[in-house]
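step=encode ok
step=design start
structure_in=
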């Protein structure tokens, strides 16, 4: 019946575009691959592909099996990797996904002492999950997620590691710089610079501007913190960032932080892990070290 090789074939045919390409990647003959898949179709009583001209198109059943392959194969790869590491006396690897762009510098403060304490653990930071890592955690593509916006799902747990205030950062000579805090109306004439994140995931929008029915004059996105704050310092716009990060840059740039509203916006950083991994010693040690490492 359905075996791992069948999932690999479906995945590789989709990636390579043909049975020939999949056969080359999987190091089998095309005829053997074709025979294996026809036998599976006969056993299941359903077509996986339909040929259209020279190309193969997945049927509804084929699309379902492709989704299964994309979900299950990474989990099998991870299981084999960890079992091999255990067999070789190694601890394992820790793959960290980032949903908090400014937290990268905080993360660096943890990684160095962690690597010294756990010499047999490899650490890999995957920034492609900056803005959508819950699925990667569920699908075993990462082992730990740094996020300010936990999504509490069955099988996941989120450990709070530190609190911070989200603030508006402006140039020191900006007209708003002398105010104790800013109100939503103050941003009507401002260019708001943010990371390239969906608006509904930006605190400055969903907790400050949108409840007041306010939008800024213009919204501009920039990927890097350094460039973003250079733009702010030169009077090209304002931005919303963690207070600890703004104060760190304020030593070298003419910028200043202002509370968003009279009460400010309080946020927390969480580390998300899978429930089943909670007792893995090297992962637990990373979480405990993160709790004691301040971003400031």
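sequence_out=
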């Amino acid at each position: 019946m359905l075996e791992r090789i069948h999932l690999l074939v479906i995945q590789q045919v989709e990636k390579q575009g043909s049975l020939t390409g999949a056969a080359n990647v999987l190091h089998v003959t095309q005829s053997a691959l074709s025979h294996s898949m026809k036998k599976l179709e006969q056993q299941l009583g359903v077509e996986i592909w339909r040929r259209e001209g020279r190309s193969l198109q997945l049927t509804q059943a084929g699309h379902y099996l492709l989704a299964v392959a994309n979900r299950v194969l990474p989990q099998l790869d991870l299981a084999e990797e960890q079992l091999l590491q255990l067999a070789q006396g190694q601890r394992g690897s820790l793959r960290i996904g980032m949903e908090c762009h400014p937290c990268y510098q905080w993360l660096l403060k943890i990684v160095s002492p962690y690597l010294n304490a756990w010499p047999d653990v490899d650490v890999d930071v995957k920034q492609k999950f900056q803005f959508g890592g819950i699925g990667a955690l569920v699908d075993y593509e990462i082992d730990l997620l740094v996020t300010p916006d936990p999504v509490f799902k069955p099988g996941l747990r989120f450990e709070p590691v530190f609190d911070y205030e989200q603030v508006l950062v402006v140039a020191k000579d900006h007209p708003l710089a002398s105010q104790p805090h800013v109100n939503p109306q103050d941003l009507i004439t401002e260019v708001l610079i943010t990371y390239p994140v969906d608006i509904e995931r930006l605190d400055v929008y969903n907790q400050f501007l949108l409840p007041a029915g306010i939008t800024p004059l213009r919204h501009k996105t920039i990927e890097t913190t350094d460039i973003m704050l250079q733009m702010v310092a030169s009077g090209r716009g304002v931005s919303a960032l963690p207070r600890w990060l703004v104060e760190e840059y304020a030593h070298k740039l003419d910028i200043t932080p202002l509370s968003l509203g009279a009460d400010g916006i309080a946020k927390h950083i969480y580390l998300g892990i899978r429930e089943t991994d909670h007792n893995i010693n090297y992962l637990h040690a990373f979480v405990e070290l993160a709790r004691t490492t301040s971003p400031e």
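step=design ok
step=annotate ok -> The chain has a mean pLDDT of 88.
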